[in-house]
Amino acid sequence: xxxxxxxxxxxxxxxxxxxxxxxxxxxxxxxxxxxxxxxxxxxxxxxxxxxxxxxxxxxxxxxxxxxxxxxxxxxxxxxxxxxxxxxxxxxxxxxxxxxxxxxxxxxxxxxxxxxxxxxxxxxxxxxxxxxxxxxxxxxxxxxxxxxxxxxxxxxxxxxxxxxxxxxxxxxxxxxxxxxxxxxxxxxxxxxxxxxxxxxxxxxxxxxxxxxxxxxxxxxxxxxxxxxxxxxxxxxxxxxxxxxxxxxxxxxxxxxxxxxxxxxxxxxxxxxxxx
Length: 274
Prior knowledge:
The protein is of the alpha/beta class and 274 residues long.
């Protein structure tokens, strides 16, 4: 399969895993955007994509704003040309946690705006920018990422849950609008994965507790891996995944059946898990 994958948040975590996997299978060039926090990770992604025999462009910028989407789409057009994008993965994780009303960490308007811009509105802005420049190839897959917080009332996570709810509505409506053009818009829901951001939040002891509670929640007895998520994304951008549209795809391994266990486990860190 020829064409390009656009990965927003490509230097670490899920975005990096997806970028390197789709370069190998199904063999897409990669246009990645990252904020520069994980420079070594970005270099590693570049090296792996090139080792797979694919082109790579890594752009350091804030992809979570309307301006960032417009400028990024212009750079992509110059690098790849029209009707070149077969996969778009929105893997931007920039959010605030805290109480909505009561508590020492009550969220403020600036945090609300930044969280919604990064985790919801930018998905729309990038889609608009790509369509306006005719960058989407026939049958392009546009994929948002979410997590089980959208179904919970886990303490301190109300703002994230609200932003993910908005993202889901964008996915549904964009699927209806872009479906007649042959494109697909979906949302992939998966549970906690071990990323550099997660290890930054939790020390080694806390990480062991996080893994233990997830082992109890998930029927398989373990957390999902980044490679497993990336491999499923690769399936979605192939013809076999073409009939998914407007869907929130549950890839939690049954985690949502025991989400209450996480609510009852405050020492795990609450809303900071994702």
